[in-house]
Amino acid sequence: MQRLKGFREFYPEPLPPGEAWSCDVRQHVFDAWRRVARRYGFREYDGPPLEPLALYTAKSGDEIVGQLFNFVDKGDEAVALRPEMTPTVARMVASVERAYKKPIKWFAMPQLFRYEAPQKGRLREHFQLNCDIFGEADPAADAEIVALLVDVLRGLGLTSEDFVVRLSSRKAWQGFFEAQGGREGMAYEFFQAVDKIEREDEATMARRLEPTGVTLEAVRHFIAAGEPTTELQGVLNNLHARGLGDFVKIDYGVIRGLAYYTGVVFEAFDRKGEFRAIAGGGRYDNLVRSLSGGRADMPAIGFGMGDVVLALLLKERGRLPSFASTVDVVVLLEDESLRPESLGVVQRLRDRGLAVDYSLVPMKGDKQFRRALEVGAGHTVRLDRDAVGLVARVKNLKTRAEQVIAVDDVAGHAFD
Ligand code: HAM
Fold first, then answer.
1. Residue 304 Cα, ligand 1 centroid: separation in angstroms?
2. Quick check: 91 and 291 in contact, CB under 8 A?
């Protein structure tokens, strides 16, 4: 029985041959996500992995709706596995906003599901860090979100030589569309066409743009000029003041595919252009209002960062630590008659918080010792009977120095 296409299994390191996804790497990434989000004063939330289908068909846009894992459940309800977190968090915030001080700064690390054609950096499930600020329309919030995105990647050891955040603006594009005499009611189609500009050939692009009333030449010219709006200039200044100027640039080649964005939008890419986007986000000031039927109304901005491209990039750039031992002490059982006393020692050391392992069944002493070396344990402890009675032989596996101590002193021993 094979796993489904586009889904992953996560193994402990060292990885078995042919396997690419490690639970140690995933934990390393999750730890950084959580650490840096908390450093910015964000609080963690979560939502349901299964949602009403209508949550996405209403607001996310055609692209993501075409990728839904959806079905009708046993109660005849049309449901979908969440393909993104933004509609869920917008609904959650809308329903409880009075209970929280503004701005609301929240993060989550959901597993998301999209029925995409699996390719490098794109699978049918991924984990995504989501950080969003609700209730603040000032560009200071946009800058804070971009700074957080930069710091998450810096927190994983990446530098301004590894990645850049390309900043753009739906407002700038909307202004351009209107100035060009774009056809009324075609703005969404226009944004969708521009979103594909880096992936499609000249003829396809021209064909897509034709019904919107804007020419490809004008679009290319607008991107090349890259004139920042006042709002974007404010974001740039803010990031420069923090010393993060090298991590961002204005680039109207980014417009984002999702339908709900209203203002600043951005995507993070590796500098060499080898991978798909590491992260993407933007301002969506109308989503809370439209999902709550007008009951709540709050500006919002945030981003999503997937674990797939990120893990590939960290590996490729050699920024992953080695995931050595997770065992502090191995208790060796050479004399089976001492198993009850040894189990007592195992228990006391674990109670103290140390990671302790031992052989569940009788095993040759030298084999147990080899295992202790293989798992990279720091120390071994072996109970032994000598002239004075029961003692514990504590061996430091780095220096190979052995100390003999009383069994009752093992739990309090400094294993360093
Ligand atoms: P998104 O651009 O669809 O935005 O996804 C954000 C990131 O998630 C991407 O840049 C990529 O790293 C990762 N990602 C997306 N789809 C896949 C996939 N099939 N396989 C692997 N990784 C993937 C959103 O989802 C927005 N809701 C983000 C947001 C939050 N905007 C405002 N707040």
1. 5
2. yes
Instruction: Name the residue with the closest Cα to ligand 1, atom 24.
Output: 304
- 114 is in which domain, residue-wise? 23-47+85-316
Residue 279: pLDDT band (50, 70, 90) is very high
Q: Are residues 352 and 311 in the same domain?
A: no
Q: What's the rounded Cα separation, in Å, for the pair 209 and 130? A: 32
Mark out the alpha helices in 44-186 (DSSP H runs). Answer: 54-59, 62-65, 86-96, 139-155, 170-179
With a CB cutoff of 8 Å and minimum separation 6, the contacts of 413 are 394, 405
More confident residue, 369 or 64: 369
325: left (phi over 0), alpha (psi -120 to 50) or beta: beta
State in Å: Cα 128 to ligand 1 middle.
7
CA of 275 to the centre of ligand 1 (A): 14
What per-residue confidence (pLDDT) applies to 108? 98
Are 159 and 293 within one domain? yes
97 lines ligand 1 (CB under 6 A): no
Task: Assess contact for 255 and 190: CB atoms under 8 A.
Answer: no
Instruction: Render pLDDT for 352-365 as a digit per residue (tens, 0 to 9).
Output: 999 999 999 999 99
Q: Tell me, in angstroms, the distance from the centre of ligand 1 to residue 306's CA.
A: 6
Residue with tokens 């894992």: 69
- Which uninterrupted H or E stretch holds 164? strand 163-169
- State the pLDDT at residue 58: 77
307 and 334 both lie in a single domain: no
For 104-150, how does the pLDDT look when each residue is reduced to its tens digit (9 = 90+)?
Answer: 999 999 999 999 999 999 999 999 999 999 999 999 999 999 999 99
User: What residue type is 247 in one-letter code?
Assistant: F
The CATH number assigned to the domain holding 115 equals 3.30.930.10
Q: Which of 295, 316, 337 is the last residue of a domain?
A: 316
Is 67:125 a contact under the CB 8 Å cutoff? no
Q: Is the CB of 301 under 6 A from ligand 1?
A: no
